Every structure is written in structure tokens, then in C-alpha cells.
Amino acid sequence: MGFQSQSTYFGSIVVCLCTTIVFLSAPMIHRPSLGASSSVSSRPLVHGLRCHDVPSRSPGMRLHNRRRTTLFAQDSHRGSENREWISSYLKDLFGGAAAQGQAEKKARELAGPAPSGSNIRWPWWFVLPIQPGEYRYTEFSEVVPGTVWSLEQLQGFINILINVRMTVVKLDEGLLVYAPLAPTREALDHINRLEAQHGPVRYLILPVSAVEHKVFFGNFASNFPDAEVWVSPGQWSWPIPLPLSLLGLGFGRRIHILGEEKAPFESQVKVATLGPFSLNKQLSETQFVETCLYHVASKSMMVTDALVYVPREPLKICEKDPYGLIFHARDRQDDYMANSVEKREEGWFKTALLALYIRPSCLDISNPNEPFIWNNWREAFDDTAERLMATPSLNQLVFRRFQPDVKRWLDMVSKWDIERVIPSHFGVAEGVSTQEVITAFQGGFVSPGESKGIGAVDKDVDNMEFLVGIDATFKEFGVVPPETGDE
After folding, report:
1. pTM reported for the whole predicted model
2. CA 311, CA 295: separation in Å to the nearest integer?
3. pLDDT at site 478
4. Cα–Cα distance, 320 to 421 (Å, whole number)
5. Considering just the CA atoms, what is the radius of gyration of the chain in Å?
6. What's the rounded mean pLDDT across residues 152-180?
7. How far apart are CA 108 and CA 169, in angstroms?
8. What are the CA-CA distances from residue 362 to residues 310, 349, 350, 414 (Å)?
9. How far apart (Å, rounded) are the C-alpha atoms in residues 366 and 57?
10. Distance set, CA 155 to CA 41, 272, 314, 324, 369 (Å)
11. What average pLDDT does this structure show over 195-219?
12. Which helix or strand (DSSP H or E) is residue 344 part of?
């Protein structure tokens, strides 16, 4: 089921915005291991928003009808309108009765029955009630033969569903697992088969403090009691600071902090931590941290959220249940829907743009008679696809504010001989170089469009407009600090 609201695409904007700042809140919560009983309903809490026309009196319409004279102006008037729109829309979004719109129903009918079955069930989905909810497939693939493997599940909001990846690496003494996923029976069966061939899981790595990744960690770790647990520094809980043993990993289990003590695997896997950074010290000392690993033998860099690489073809995990792709394939609300190769590809293009930019420039929501209209989305996707780049929301909200720290981190990365990058979202970037990784991050050192010297920046100018506006509002209210170099 989903929340009734004025417009699916306004809902997409607001809820996806929450994902870009989710690292500002939420503790890791301990839950029992797989197979524990649960009385929770089997239906996901978040299924999608019902499509309705958006009245012209909406504050959001007033905000987006006006063409801004300059992209990076941070005047108080725009900040005031952003606040008015967000406040009004959240009230509409969460005040409506639960409903399932006709578009959602049609997309589900075309995609086939919703995933179900004990093999793909994660009973503690309600800890973070986002899609796909209780049932989630796992897509297994081999990245480097006999050495590196990828396991992917779906994750998202309001039918904007992309992958979240766990990476498994073979070491001399066994397996290292980076950024664990929901431990469904299907996922654990894949790990068990790898253990049978390559040795036991020796190390579990929690590379971030972001709730959408660490929500799985304690439950996953309980299935491997003999594995060493290594976490990024700066783990925290709110509203009460708790020791790590109470944040989902159980009593008596030693928890190692990456970077604070030398890991036994560092001769085979190098470690570089970006952060911890605090965007708002009133919440905690840390809201962003990410530890990246470099596997020397395969020349593979593992990252979580900091870098993305969007492939042109829809990901296999997205096609396994193509509901989200079919839903977002429409150019307009009443467009014909179909489960075809062409429509799934169109849905992938738009899903990627929404996930990266929240409200990309090619999405028009200014027409009071049309909830949404997509224009020139192929060109916008072409500018984004098949290039390694820093995640736009983190670029705008985080990296520009901590440039000296990012540069020090890049100095460590520059010593690695990188040939592939394996992010937790979207695709694996093959055949890349260490310099390409550095260049991708350097795009965060300036506001988009400010410098002609960075190729990735100019392409993002229009698509970044919404994120820049949100950034201005956050800065006005003191939610985030000024960028490096601001007065």
C-alpha cells in the first residue's frame, strides 16, 4: 500500500530528498536472526503514491513555475519558498489515507505477481519500511572470476527502485564481505556456496553510518558469529548515544574500528576512510563517513555511496521484478503502460535520473493540468550514463564542504592501481583508472558549472538545480555548514 497524495512525482521528490540526507539520523537497531517469528503484516508499508492532478494553488507549483534568474543564487526568498513547499507537501503526503493508485495497480499487473516466498523474505523490513518491503530477490554475479562477487537486492522509495550491492572478496584466509545486505535465505545460500569453495567468512565490513546500509548489518553478522566485525569510525545513535554492542551486534562480540587499529587483511586489502564529517553537530558528531577498500590482487576499489556508474542497460535485479521500471516509463500520467524491452529501458533511464538528481531538469512539474511531463530525458540520461561520477547529492551537500579532507583522502587513493570500481549502487565501472576516480571527486570541489576545467561538471548544471536549491535552504537554516572558502 502507499500514501495518497497530490502527485506521484511530487512524492518522489520529497521522499527521495529524505534518502539524500538519511545519514543525518537513525541508529542501527538490533533484530533477531533470520527465521525469528514475526506478527507483522506481509504487505510492504511503502508501495507507491497515487497519481492526482496538482492544484495550481500549491506552494510547490508557485516555486517551480517561476524561472530562476541564476542557478546558484542563495537568497532568502527562494529559501522561504522551498520551506513553504516542503512543509505543505509533507502535510499532504502524510495526512492522506493509504491508497493504491491505478498506475501502481496497472504496473503490478504488467510486471506479474509481487515477489513472495520464504526464501526471499526478510522479516525485519519494518525497521526501515522502504521498498521492496518484506520480500526481496537477490541477484548473484561474478565480477572477477574466482575472486570477487556481487550480490544485489532492490531498494528505494515511491517506486524509484535501484540496486543495493554487497561485495564479497576472496582472501588467503577466507572471505571478506563489504556492506552486507538483508540476510534472506536466498542471499545466505549464495554466501554458503562461496564458503564451501573458498573458505569461511572471516571479515564483515560496515563501511558507512547511513541507516539504509547498516540496518542489515547486525542481523547479517548474527549468521556469522566467528567472523571479525570491522566498522567505520563515527558510528552513532540518536537520541541516546549507545555503545556499538547495543547497536545490533550483540554482547560480547568485539567490534574493530577501521583506521583506528590495523586490520589483519590490510596486506591484501587497503583501507581509506572519508570522514567522519558532521553536517550538524546538534544531531551528532558524525553524519557522513565512508570507508573504501582496495583489493590489491584484483585491482578493485569498493565504495558505498560516494561514487556511482550508471549503465545504459537496466540492471538485472531491476528486471527481475520490473514493476518500478514499468511505472516510471510514462512520459505523462495517462500514457500507455506496457511490459516490453523498450518500456523497461525508458523506465530505467527515468529511474536513474530521479534517483541521482531527485528532480532532474527534464522533469516538468509546472503545468497545473499535468502532474508531470518528461522532456528530453534521453539526452539527460546520455549525459549521465556510463561515466564514473561522485554521487550528485553528496557532491552538493558534503564534499564541497570538506575539501581539504577529501583531498587528503584522494592522496591515499592515488597510491592505488585501480582498474575497476564497485559501488553499492548502480553498475560496476570496468576499465577505469585511478585518475578517473580522482577526477570524479574533484567535481565536488566547485559548484556545478563553475569551472570549465572539469568535464563532469558542465553536464550536471541543469539537473543539479533542485539539489542546489535545497542546499541553499539547508544553509540558510544552519542545517549544513558553509562550503569550504565561504565567508
Report:
1. 0.79
2. 23
3. 79
4. 24
5. 22
6. 96
7. 36
8. 17, 12, 9, 36
9. 11
10. 19, 26, 15, 11, 31
11. 94
12. helix 341-357
